[in-house]
Amino acid sequence: ALAGSATLACANFPDKPVTIVVPFAAGGPTDKIARDLAEALRKPLGQTVIIDNTIGAGGTIGAAKVARAAPDGYTLLVSHIGMATAPALYRKLSYKVPEDFETLGLINEAPSVLIGKPGLAANNFAELRQWIAANGTKVNLANAGLGSASHLCGLMFQSALKTTMTPVPYKGTAPAMTDLIGGQVDLMCEQAVNAVPQIEGKKVKVYGITSLQRLPLPALKDAPTLSEAGLKDFNVQVWHGLYAPKGTPPAVLAKLNAALRTALKDPELIKREEALGLTVVTDERLDPASHRKFVETEKTRWAKVIKDAGEYAD
Ligand code: MLT
């Protein structure tokens, strides 16, 4: 009887609202992306999609909640690159990546930009590089906390320059940005989705794009990639993915994946994402197996950077 009712539950899925756990604060980049996705999923799922912001510890508290949730498809997770970096950054993680999750598909890629406080004398990346070389550990590099996108990008930036700066961690992107605008810190490497409004408002200086392609946004039309500006092959790109708890029935996963594919073809969603500097991923990357492989590749790539930097939580 149990097996029969489980089959029926799969056939009827979803017959009540689905919850997406967002492991970061409301109003931040991940939250914005998840809310847009929730809206676009409503039609293909035929149900309301509710956002639950369960925040803290670099997104690991929300991810742990989903790892422990009932594997019935009603509790999902939207998280970022932190899914792949948390195992190296948080030594006492209560879940395994990707083993404790079903990867449902990538959502987008979210390029970052290197930005500076308004008063910085350097006017381009070459000048900034000289200034960093002259000031070394006196350079304050803001980040939104251990495991945040800005923290990871900052680690990679220091590693590429073979320089140690002074990391200044904040409790989120908003306070970090506030202090950068106020000149209390010098630099930050932040997701375009969050930085573009400040660049447009001329509240911060922009030195370059951290991934390999320029961004077709008016505010960034003169911004080179760091790779073309001299830091050859520098490539840090945040990405977001959709996850379910391990053990979710295959029939439910298939429905969720199909809904994700439909949602990411929604012209309204694509327009909103592009305006934020995000790139919706191509169809083949929406495949659960390729999503899983990508998470594993990123996990390996970052584990080394994180180990070399020696910045982690016990
Ligand atoms: C957020 O959504 O708050 C950010 O993506 C967190 C971060 O900077 O990593």
Short synopsis of the structure:
The chain is an alpha/beta fold. It is 42% helix and 19% strand. The protein has eleven helices and ten strands.
Residue-averaged pLDDT: 94
Low-confidence stretches: none
Q: Indicate the structural class.
A: alpha/beta
Query: Which overall shape is indicated by the principal axes computed on the Cα atoms?
Result: globular
The count of DSSP E runs of length 2 or more, i.e. the number of strands, is: 10
Bound molecules: D-malate
How many helices? 11
Order of helices and strands: HEHEHEHEHEHEHEHEEHHEH
Spatial extent as radius of gyration: 20 Å
Largest sheet: 10 strands, mixed
What percentage of residues falls in helices of 4 or more residues?
40-55%
> What is the distance, rounded to the nearest whole angstrom, between the alpha carbons of the first and last residues?
46 Å
Q: Approximately how much beta-strand content do the residues carry?
A: 15-25%
Overview of this protein structure:
It comes from Variovorax ginsengisoli. This is Tripartite tricarboxylate transporter substrate-binding protein. Keywords: Signal. Belongs to the UPF0065 (bug) family. With 314 residues, the protein is of the alpha/beta class. Helices cover 42% and strands 19% of the residues. It has helices at 2-12, 29-45, 60-68, 82-89, 125-135, 149-161, 173-182, 192-200, 250-263, 267-275, 288-309; strands at 18-22, 49-53, 75-80, 101-116, 140-143, 166-169, 187-191, 205-209, 237-245, 279-280. Strands 1, 2, 3, 4, 5, 6, 7, 8, 9 and 10 form a ten-stranded mixed beta sheet that branches. Strand 1, helix 2 (29-45) and strand 2 (49-53) form a beta-alpha-beta unit. Helix 4 (82-89) runs parallel beside helix 11 (288-309) and helix 6 (149-161) packs across helix 11. The longest helix has 22 residues, at 288-309. The protein starts with a helix and ends in a 5-residue tail after the last helix. It binds D-malate. Residues 24-25, 28-31, 80, 144, 148-150, 172-173 line the site of D-malate (MLT).
